[in-house]
Amino acid sequence: MSGTRRSPQQDRSRETVDRILVAAEHEIGERGVAGASTTAIAARAGLSVGALYRFFEDKSAIVDALANRYLEAVAPAYTEVVSGITTVADLNDALGELLRRAAALQEEHPGYYRLTEELSPDRGDSPAHAVREHLIDLFAEALRGTGVEQSPGELRRVVELCIETVRHTLAHRPPGHPDREASLAEVELMLRSYLDVRLG
Question: What is the DSSP string of 129-164?
Answer without folding.
Answer: HHHHHHHHHHHHHHHHTTT----HHHHHHHHHHHHH
